[in-house]
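Something for you to look into today, if you have time. I want to see for myself how the chain folds. Leave the record below and I will have a look.
***
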Amino acid sequence: MPRPAATVPARGAAGPVACFSASGNHFATGYPRPVRQPQPAATVDQGRSVSAGQPDGRAPRRDDRQRVRDHLGLSIVATILCAPVGALGLLHALRAADHLARGDVPGARRVARRGRAWSLAATAAGMLLLAALAATGGGHRG
């Protein structure tokens, strides 16, 4: 199979330049050139951007977003103490960060509250388990 004469570097390619033939197909895979999707416009509610952060569509800067505590540290400790319940707290903490990244502050707060509740329950269960093991000598007969 003869190689096409003209190659065009891919737009926005990270790392090595991906080569496409004149017909638009990639040499190595044969797949067509990726099409860039247009970015959604920011929806503005009461002068504040809701979906994309800034009214002009730029991503929000860290100091522009409202602060929502995701309780990630607590959920990690809870997962160490009581893995099944603590994992739920960890999952909710990560989901809270995702909601905040999308600009959904009320959703981030709601999910963070659930994560804190699961993490506190896991911490309490883990402490009770450790106290029970300490009181019984850890199950070691001697």
The radius of gyration is 25 Å. The mean pLDDT is 75. The beta strands are 7-9, 19-21, 44-45, 48-49. DSSP finds three helices and four strands in the chain.
